[in-house]
């Protein structure tokens, strides 16, 4: 959600497994097995092949979904056919965000991955660095990738309501991102207070259960029609001066 307006800015497309007896399973339940079986590429292909249809249905229904974001596995970043799959998907690159896990990037950086990231930039696809702060050599990752969007991991965001002493660290991360001309996303926004605090600290976008849990395409369409795409009132864009001053001293 756009922190200033409270309106939807992007929808993240998530992989789930519809298990015949266990119901809908999250990625943690099956992605490692899929990797061992060598079928992650096929899963990514299915996701990208469905992008155009999803966006077209939203557009035909006049439901405003400005952008869609997808997570990309390490193997796909190092696969030259990845760029071809994006081009053949039919989705407008200007409406696509590719999210790269910080740990994935640091472990897999090489000539092919560097070429892939450059090609994404050339196409006009937005590159986001996901779960920032959970991997190693985080600042090094930022300097090497130079993503357009920096997503702060939820483990840093969730304590800011109950423990004010954690806010200067979050403010420091925001300052780093802003200093590198990146837009900043706060993950793990679970309450209105979360939204207000990190919004006032300068986050551009907010993501989390406060706005809704993962849902089907049809349920999201209904929700967007009901809300008009506006999920909360928005926050004062002026950063919290005290937290920002502490962040600058820390940096």
Helix-strand blueprint:
Blueprint: E1 11-13, E2 17-19, E3 23-25, H1 31-37, H2 40-60, E4 68-72, H3 74-77, H4 81-89, E5 96-101, H5 102-108, H6 111-123, E6 126-132, H7 138-145, E7 149-152, H8 154-157, H9 167-179, E8 183-186, H10 192-200, E9 205-206, H11 217-227, H12 241-250
Parallel strand pairs: 1-4, 4-5, 5-6, 6-7, 7-8, 8-9
Antiparallel strand pairs: 2-3
Primary descriptors:
251 residues; seven-stranded parallel β-sheet; 9 strands; alpha/beta
Task: Report on the architecture of this protein.
The chain is an alpha/beta fold. The chain contains twelve helices and nine strands. A seven-stranded parallel beta sheet has the order 1-4-5-6-7-8-9. Strands 2-3 form a two-stranded antiparallel ribbon. Strand 2 (17-19) and strand 3 (23-25) form a beta hairpin. Helix 9 (167-179) packs across helix 12. It is globular. The two termini are 27 Å apart.
Question: Could you list the spans in which at least 5 consecutive residues all have pLDDT below 50?
Answer: none
Distance between the termini: 27 Å
Q: How many helical elements? A: 12
Mean pLDDT: 87
Q: Which overall shape is indicated by the principal axes computed on the Cα atoms?
A: globular
Percentage beta strand: 5-15%
Biggest sheet strand order reads 1-4-5-6-7-8-9
SS class: alpha/beta
What is the gyration radius calculated from CA atoms? Answer: 18 Å
Q: Which H/E pattern describes the elements?
A: EEEHHEHHEHHEHEHHEHEHH
Query: Helix coverage percent of residues?
Result: 40-55%
The number of E-state strands comes to 9
What characterizes the major β-sheet?
7 strands, parallel
